[in-house]
Design brief:
The chain is of the alpha/beta class and about 300 residues long. The chain has a domain of about 200 residues: NAD(P)-binding Rossmann-like Domain (Rossmann fold, 3-Layer(aba) Sandwich), CATH 3.40.50. Helices cover about 45% and strands about 15% of the residues. The protein contains ten helices and twelve strands. The strands form four sheets. It has a six-stranded parallel sheet with strand order 2-1-3-4-5-10, with helices on both faces. Strands 6-9 form a two-stranded parallel ribbon. Strand 4, helix 5 and strand 5 form a beta-alpha-beta unit. The longest helix is centred in the first third of the chain and has 22 residues. It starts with a strand and ends with a helix.
Length: about 300
Amino acid sequence: MRALITGGRGFVGHHLAQHLAAMGDDVTVADRDVDVTDRAALVSAMSASRPDVIYHLAAMTSVAESWSRPAEYTRVNVLGTAHVLDAAHEVVPGAKVVVVSSAEVYGIVSEADLPLTETSPTVPSNPYSTSKLEAELVARDAVRSRQQSVVIARPFNHIGPGQSAVFVVPALVQRMLEATAQGRHFIMVGDLSTRRDFSDVRDVVRAYRLLAEWGRPGEAYNVASGHDVALADVADELRRRINPNLELLVDPELLRPVEVPVSRGSFEKLHEATGWEPTWTLSQSLDDVIAAQRPH
């Protein structure tokens, strides 16, 4: 298959490109050289690559940052998705498009609501998740109005080697490694009481390719491990591996205005459609994140 990845030089895009190449796909990466809010640039990129599948990953992705830049998140995540779909409809109308959304669209839930399925209510709780749900609506409109083949992926938290330290797990690793190297006995942390469903990025990108093959147009699919873990437990696992003597101190500046207390997804729908299930353990993922961030 000929594949085009928007945001292909980012954390997930890099792993996706590697996976697609390993599967024998002809991969074209569109990143900073192709602005997803520039329809003409997208038309040019698609005309050159003639993709059978488009993986739309390009997005602004920080929940914390979205509070201070809500308009920019809407512009890139919503308008960008609309332009990708418009360009695809013009240039490669038969292409399958995998639009990557986020499990953040489910918003704040209680333990009684878990596990979250694709029919769970979507009540975004921050500007980032609002923009992602709006992008989903744009994708569904393209299916209904133009019969485009668009499938929506809703990944829960994912981690792995190469992830930016703006995200919680690599941020903790970075702080622990720096504190240890500098002889400090503590690091500052945010709210570690929250519970998250973590998948390895290498499992996530495998799900995206399977959805390109087997996902039904207009449908959303959770990409999740099916288990939740407290960030405090993740921090303890990292501390055990890096420096068991480190103390964790809460910094109010690292607390978000609104926090989703718990999240756990069901991947049953994805499994039924594609046969996908997780293969990487959290322990393996944490080991690889640390190895990628240690000074070489």
